């Protein structure tokens, strides 16, 4: 039987190659995702390992990676150096928000990678790893000297001796020191982050307002002293509010925080791998069904010659296993390329990992093969089982009908799945289930599979209408095409279903994206009364000197600042808002539900309506937060309705945040014109006031709305691109089905040609059948996509997605595209059919 | 027999003229001569049978004359049209408009009803059947009750009769039948043959049938015998006995030689 399976595989290379392609793509996605995230993990682990000392002392628990304005005085560093077991202690000044500006005036890596400004010391990193070292030139010394990391200097085009342009979020927004050295860490790259190194005193001047203090202290262990022993010794010396961690703990904490933040990338990519595999499995089911049907007589002969049912099923499953192994191998190879591709894309966003070699873990290889083989075998199982039901006697018959389960059962199973899936979606969307994304995701999957199962029945009316329309418009060619599409509703519907899945998701995303964009526009139009918005292009905070400078400009009316910082309350870490109570009303239209927003004191907090409801809070109640300076309690002064401008659960006066230990940095500044009609002058003044800080952008209302929509558009483009792969697989499915149908109907094609059907007519017949499949898949997909989209929007109405926009034009475009796709998909099969030798087609047994 | 001269000229016009037709398959040692300089006229309004043992070239001859296959040398003319040099499009049109086909099996498109199958060549050409003639044909094949049935709802004999109706309805110059009774029991076969006979007698249709069944061939006006790609004998007003006699005759010559 093994030989039979192998022979039959080799005899159908081209057909199988197409269904293998589906497996290859799915496996490539899985493997590529794993490789990329493993590489990402290793690169960050390497960074964090060489950026901690044996023991790290910080003034307080860092808040979600935000640097606090709390410091450790220099005297403590001296004390720590004397701790038993300590070889030395070194204070570090670290600041996020110091960027290198290249010779063309553009920020290096300004697309999201952090720009670090630090003080120089030669302390070794934990576990004796080499810490920061000078690769070239010398150590920076004095306020006019700086050292840069190798990549940053290279990318900015600076060489030693050049004057370097830097922007900081500190007291002096713009610096022009001389580059004296090139630095690097002992191991690994910086993943696109840039490093600007100053001498200790300069760093303290720039980032700590000149106090002789540090953001953290590294204590290096003496020979033979473990990190834990040293940590315990250090804890005896420092004040209780200080946090003391071993280097390993600190590195793990830093890394896990960051890796958690980027773990969505893995999930995101794996979801698409899953979509590709589900769509691909339709292709495999169809291919094997048709292959088995074609070989029915051969299989019946095997049965007649004494092969058991199990052997027949086994031979089909063996074929699928070999196919799966082959697909997984090719997919793994393609996955490597894909991982490099993803890495290149992320490098474009500033996450440059070229310093770390690609990691191919055994887990990746195993996952690729398991996914490839399991998906293929599972998909081939149904056709394989059906093949075993072929009776031996059928070997003797002329025409073999494959045993088929009744459509009634498929309808029941399909309806059941749709109901269950709808229920799961409802649980995820409406109730407070713990993992809503899983509920919704699995619900969507169940609905999609249910619709696919029921589609032969659901498609009936559509196919009848299509057949009637074809009869009317295309004469006998139309009749033939319409009947061909109907003769095997399972096959037509399964092929269409693959397309349906991709399109349902695309449609859902189109509706969500459009609605989100419309919501942003509406929110800005309704709520924003300022004239100009100044913010950092990448969201990093900037120096308060910007707002101060603008306040003095005569063209500027009101200056209102906003900042976002992380804080903890009730054990939950959340971002909170800081604003100028006196001026907020001038730039944002906001009516508090109770209390007042414009006279909030430093010991008061304003909260959003949903928080008030969830936590049962009213004006006058008290809420406690953990902030850099420790626990602080605030009194609720007002309750506001959440909007695009007050999108966070808690808001404080800016002074309150400064007192609570947060760095004095702004995220956004809103301005109004000094006089009506003075917008142009205002924009000019704003541009002039921020000209030497390239990271900052000045926007009017419309530009601001565009900027707010941009991430939605970018995300949509990315998702469309990834779903495009699923659509390509689905289109290949149509090609495959048509090609196999043509082969299956060779004699019929020959007969039609013999009685006078021209090649052109034959091609048109196959093209029309293809269009039916494509349009069926598209309509099913659109219907489901609209349902999904509206369901999600209804459920998300509370989250600020108030506008519901169904982009009918775009959806109509999908239908037109489906017709084009149908015509294109038919091209090769039709050409093949038209080229059939009439005589041989008739003679084929 | 002189192969370059037409065999037994009659007063009838030739529906197809075949001259010096040669076709080989394969190369070298595997080379097989399927047709070796065949010249013959097929007369209009006659029912002609082509007989011969397997490999004698009878099917190849029919396929070439029916514009399904091309010969290496020699000429074929259907009516006034020479087949040589026609492109695929013209050959397709010729098959559609001037030829009718009945194959041994798989004659009908399974997705179409009997009626749709019958009018298929006309529909492909975008023409409507002449209603009077259509009715005549339907009555002749006797399937008026079953016109809306699909092929799989018809018996083998009925399917072949539908195929004959399809071949007749376009009033082709020649109807080609390739072993039309090969898959049928003798009674259904006889019905199909009677139908073909009637089309010749009543409608003056020209029919050429390939068969290896002497009884089937005995329904014809004329029987051509092929062996090794050559025309070796011909009978007029054949009976099964005379056909068998002739066949045994040249079989003996073949094996005795």
Please tell me about this protein's structure.
The complex is a heterodimer of chains A (845) and B (257). Chain A starts with a helix and ends with a helix. Chain A has 845 residues and is of the alpha+beta class. In chain A, strand 17 and strand 18 (572-579) form a beta hairpin. In chain A, strands 16, 17, 18, 19, 20, 21, 22, 23, 24 and 25 form a ten-stranded mixed beta sheet that branches. A six-stranded mixed beta sheet of chain A has the order 4-6-12-8-11-7. Chain A folds into four domains: 1-55 and 256-404, no CATH class; 60-241, no CATH class; 458-530 and 702-845, no CATH class; 544-692, no CATH class. Chain A is elongated. Chain A is built from 24 helices and 25 strands. Chain B has 257 residues and is of the alpha/beta class. Chain B has a single domain (14-256), classed as P-loop containing nucleotide triphosphate hydrolases (Rossmann fold), CATH 3.40.50. Helices cover 37% and strands 25% of the residues of chain B. Chain B has nine helices and ten strands. Chain B has helices at 58-65, 88-98, 114-118, 120-125, 131-141, 156-169, 186-203, 214-217, 240-256, and strands at 14-25, 32-43, 47-51, 73-78, 81-82, 99-102, 174-178, 207-210, 222-227, 230-236. In chain B, the strands form two sheets. Chain B has a six-stranded mixed beta sheet, sandwiched between helices. In chain B, helix 5 packs antiparallel against helix 6 and helix 6 runs parallel beside helix 7. At the A-B interface, helix 12, helix 20 and helix 24 of A face helix 2 and helix 4 of B.
Give a short overview:
The complex is a heterodimer of chains A (845) and B (257). By secondary structure, chain A is α+β, with helices and mostly antiparallel strands.
